[in-house]
């Protein structure tokens, strides 16, 4: 039986079934993605994958309740900082606190389950989170802003090709002597790696 109210769109059994089916498919897709994150093969960064998943969740929020709308946004901001090399002490604990608040106070299934992959990866890949935050290092190399390039002085021939190819002048040295990279200037574009014919430029 449909209830009609003047000026209010009619929501009947058909619309309710459709909404329930959409929510069911969303939950199923989210669970599958969560399992893929946990079982991510070598070469895929679980922190980066989790950030991508939460970005999708935040884009799907209806915005009705504050915990889901603002909470997922805040969690996404923290994850994006972490994969950009700007993570700081306390981020992990803040993610856990936000996840608990969002899942327990959101009004719908999306908000209640959106933090789950973050919680799961924090349990399974806590070491990787800590490496991103404290060591500014991504083992997989997927988080490009966490890559550091160094020139091996034992291999470098001092040809200056890397310095000439650097778009920001981050490489200096004397010809026929080992060159060095200034990390504060390096934009991590990888031009030096491509320019070197001797394999002296390494990702560390």
Question: In words, what does this structure look like?
Answer:
- This protein is mainly alpha-helical and 204 residues long.
- It has nine helices and four strands.
- It has helices at 13-38, 46-60, 66-83, 91-105, 109-113, 116-124, 126-135, 161-165, 191-195; strands at residues 149-151, 171-172, 180-181, 201-203.
- The strands form two sheets. Strands 1-4 form a two-stranded antiparallel sheet.
- Helix 1 (13-38) runs parallel beside helix 6 (116-124) and helix 3 (66-83) packs antiparallel against helix 4.
- It starts with 12 loop residues before the first helix and ends with a strand.
Strand content: under 5%
Biggest pleated sheet: 2 strands, antiparallel
Fourth CATH level, the homologous superfamily of the largest domain: NADH-ubiquinone oxidoreductase 51kDa subunit, iron-sulphur binding domain
Based on the coordinates given, report the CATH architecture of the largest domain. Answer: Up-down Bundle
> DSSP helix count?
9
Task: Please trace the helix and strand order, writing H or E for each element.
Answer: HHHHHHHEHEEHE
Q: What's the level 1 CATH class of the largest domain?
A: Mainly Alpha
Strand order of the largest sheet: 1-4
**What is the structural class?**
mainly alpha
The global form is elongated
Number of strands: 4
